[in-house]
Amino acid sequence: xxxxxxxxxxxxxxxxxDLLNWSRKSSVWYMLFGLACCGIEMMQTGGxxxxxxxxxxxxxxxxxxxxxxxxxxxxxxxxxLRTKLLYEQMPEPxxxxxxxxxxxxxxxxxxxxxxxxxxxxxxxxxxxVPGCPPRPEALTEGLLKLQAKxxxxxxxxxxxxxxxxx
Amino acid sequence: MDADGIHRALREKFAGAVDPDWVxxxxxxxxxxxxxxxxxxxLLRDEPALGFDCLSNLSGVxxxxxxxxxxxxxxxxxxxxxxxxxxxxxxRLDPVLPTVSHLWPIANWLERECWDLLGVRFVDHxxxxxxxxxxxxxxxxxxxxxxxxxxxHGISTRRESLLKL
Lengths: 166, 165
Prior knowledge:
The complex is a heterodimer.
Chain A: H1 16-25, E1 30-31, H2 37-46, E2 59-60, E3 68-72, H3 77-89, E4 95-99, H4 100-105, E5 127-129, H5 136-151
Parallel strand pairs in A: 1-2, 1-3, 3-4, 4-5
Chain B: H1 3-13, E1 18-23, E2 29-32, H2 37-46, E3 54-63, E4 68-77, E5 82-91, E6 96-98, H3 107-118, E7 121-123, E8 151-152, E9 155-156
Parallel strand pairs in B: 2-5, 6-7
Antiparallel strand pairs in B: 1-2, 3-4, 4-5, 8-9
């Protein structure tokens, strides 16, 4: 049965899960975590020309109030353990974007003695953004992909552990 | 002052420590004994006619075949517009050099880098810690016989060969 035209237009009907997800995806606060040259592009993405703020994503200076960590740049072994610590300080639900070739797989520097080749060896990653460095448009699309993922989540009715999540 | 003059000024004060031969080039190379590097550097900085006010670079080279480690000091004078490269060698088994961090503050980090990557110990350095590698890292990666550990705190350091891809 369609609900269209049966209720006044000041009323919106939705599912609670959808409302929760819609509000969460519309305020993805990301932590400022620039590691290398990709960090410059991340700043540009948050700047006025690309303006990540229009999707509700604003930069935060501390992991304790952040929903998203954008690992942007070469991850050295010295930084790897600190990255893990910062990720663990973020409150759940938390998300992560791996930005650029270096964070994805070590990139140009993957054979170097000091480089951790791939941030997914340290923390789980939701969205990988390729590029060296990715343009602000690419990172914006990465955020949109993450928002699409958040919108699909189910919080009120969950499958038991072991069953494949949607 | 030209390179020959710089070399002569050093030979006057440190006849025993400074090699009589020098190599011409954009950076004239003067070889100095490892024990008197700090005094030679102090003369180069403080003598008005020399006036080397900038340590442009401090780097090390592992000469494994000769069983020694070379450390290079690239010095520059903004006042007189001349430059010189000091070369000194130290044994590979126990590389020790006097610090120059009290002469040029930048040497503090450059010597820490040299200690980190090559294991050269700089005596009287105020804070000789690793600079680039993690604090609990074992070994010095720029040594020719450095063997990379398989993992670091559970992070695998084994990489696929790029030639296979």
